[in-house]
Design a protein that fits this description.
The complex is a heterodimer of chains A (113) and B (113). Chain A has 113 residues and is an all-beta fold. Chain A is built from no helices and 11 strands. The chains are: A mainly beta (113), B mainly beta (113). Chains A and B meet through β4, β5, β9 and β10 of A and β5 and β9 of B.
């Protein structure tokens, strides 16, 4: 089955620790995206990548880093510099051939205490 | 900047019809998406409009007026399972942002029995 996987579903970390969230897709999509969602809020774009080895900052990139070494994978690192990391993180992918409809993974809920 | 506006909350009763509005002001436009998101889950695709007019898909319809920067999602024969957040998103159409979606904050719809 084609789709996007994110792991783990729930993640707990202590303040001051870096943490990496996984996102893998087997849809052969060119573009991948990371969003953050807080309670009662819409989706805010953290980073996106349109091709391998290239990525752009979104609206709230501070305190986050990404890499795109493979087409299938777009991991997100939440660094200790991110002041309010507790949130629901969603990964998505899209491709021009499908009108750029974004397909979402199930999300990772990160709690930092 | 990009501005996508939609109401924060709406309520309706089972079997009724509800219309969720979305207005947008963006520097580029290549279509508008509607997504449904149940609490704690990933958004799922509902509709895509790029030309003016109404697109109907079962109980759900979506309308777009590009000249007015306006869209609405119409939900008929409401069911309890339609209680969710509905996200309006505009597809950008400029250079390096091609493929990027700009999301509104979402409209939380509650359906009462």
């Amino acid at each position: 089955d084609g789709g996007i996987t994110q792991s783990p579903k729930y993640l707990f970390r202590k303040e001051g620790q870096n943490v990496t969230l996984s996102c893998e897709q087997n849809l052969n999509h060119d573009a991948m995206y990371w969003y953050r969602q807080d309670p009662g809020q819409g989706l805010r774009l953290i980073y996106y990548s349109q091709i391998v080895n290239d990525f752009q900052k979104g609206d709230i990139a501070e305190g986050y880093s990404v890499s795109r070494e493979k087409k299938e994978s777009f991991p997100l690192t939440v660094t200790s510099a991110q002041k309010n990391p507790t949130a629901f993180y969603l990964c998505a992918s899209s491709t021009p051939g499908l009108g750029y409809e974004q397909y979402f993974g199930p999300g990772t809920r990160l709690t930092v205490t | 900047g990009q501005n996508i506006d939609q109401p924060t909350e709406m309520t309706a009763t089972e079997g009724a019809i509800v219309q969720i509005n979305c207005t947008y002001q963006t520097s580029g436009f290549n279509g508008l998406f509607w997504y449904q998101q149940h609490a704690g889950e990933a958004p799922t695709f509902l509709s895509y409009n790029v030309l003016d007019g109404l697109e109907e898909k079962g109980r759900f319809s979506s309308f777009l007026s590009r000249s007015k920067g306006y869209s609405y999602l119409l939900l008929k024969e409401l069911q309890m399972k339609d209680s969710a957040s509905y996200l309006c998103a505009v597809l950008a159409d400029r250079g390096s942002t091609l493929g990027r979606l700009y999301f509104g904050r979402g409209t939380q719809l509650t359906v009462w029995p």
